[in-house]
Amino acid sequence: MSTYTQTREEIHDAVIHGIDFSRTIEDREVLELIDDEIVRAKRARNLSLDEMKRMRQELFNAIRRLDILQELIEDSSITEIMINGPDNIFIERGGKVCRTDRSFVSKQKLEDVVQQIVSACNRVVNESSPIVDARLANGDRVNVVLPPVALNGPIVTIRRFPEKPIRMEDLLALGSLPEEIAAFLDCVVRAGYNIFISGGTGSGKTTFLNALSEFIPADERVITIEDNAELQIRHIDNLVRLEARNANVEGCRPISIRDLIRSALRMRPDRIIVGEVRGSEAIDMVQAMNTGHDGSLSSGHANSAQDMLARLETMILMGMDLPLPAIRGQLASAIDLVVHLGRLRDRSRKLLEVCQITGLQDGHVMTAPIFRFCETGEKDGKITGRWEKSGHLLSRDKLTLAGVECPWA
Question: What DSSP element (H or E) covers 318?
Answer without folding.
Answer: helix 305-319
